[in-house]
Amino acid sequence: MTNTDTTATAQGRRRGTYAKTEATRQAILDAALEVFSGSGYRAGSLREIALRVGMSEAGLLHHFRNKSALLEAVLEEKDERARTIVPTGSEDGAAVLRGLVDLAAYNASIPGVVELFATLSGEATAPDHPAHAYFVRRYNFTRTTIERALDNLERDGRLRHGMTPRRAAITIIAMMDGLQVQWLLDRSVLDMAEELKALFATFADIDWDVDTAGDDETAEVAS
């Protein structure tokens, strides 16, 4: 075997090992999502997550150093998709609101993730919860982002009289969270995206037929 053959073989093995590691990591994240969404963070155990993946708890800790790190990775994975849907950096306030409606529609396809968020956001009100700082930061970012979008709408004369950007931002977040809880309890009762769109229509002038694909500077938002 030549040196070139040996190098190619070694590179192939490394790629195979990397792919296997990534597959295992994803399996752990999927199992953690199920456990945390069903039992909450505090009650959900690493042992139960490891059992679902078919490995030991020590094996799981080889991929994630502790339970808090695993939770952080689960939440980060959830945010990755949101970043591709809501153009939070856009100067077009209507585009941001359309993105929030698109996000609500997407969330209806991932009930386990919605349940995780609903469970953890309640648990994380406790200051000592590992996700407390994450949710404080997330809500602050979301509130600021939506308020900025509504400021832009107000500047363009598209925000109806009597509604301030800050009050509307707070109302929108409360509406999104409340819709998720009602939907989790009975999915036949409402369509989250349509209800959110109806709310926006009460205080903002938005063209819903515009394609938002291509908006850039996306970032994390509360689902």
What does this 3D model show about the protein?
The chain is mostly helical and 223 residues long. Helices cover 72% and strands 0% of the residues. The protein contains nine helices and no strands. Helix 1 packs across helix 4. The protein is elongated.
Share of β-strand residues: under 5%
Q: What global shape is seen?
A: elongated
- The biggest beta sheet, please? none
Helix percentage range: over 70%
Mean pLDDT: 87
Total strand count, please?
Answer: 0
Q: State the secondary-structure class.
A: mainly alpha
Q: H/E element string?
A: HHHHHHHHH
Q: How do the strands and helices of this protein lay out in sequence?
A:
Layout: H1 3-43, H2 46-53, H3 57-63, H4 67-85, H5 93-107, H6 111-123, H7 132-155, H8 165-185, H9 192-203
Condensed summary:
The chain is mostly helical. The protein has helices spanning 3-43, 46-53, 57-63, 67-85, 93-107, 111-123, 132-155, 165-185, 192-203.
Keywords:
223 residues; mainly alpha; 0% strand; elongated
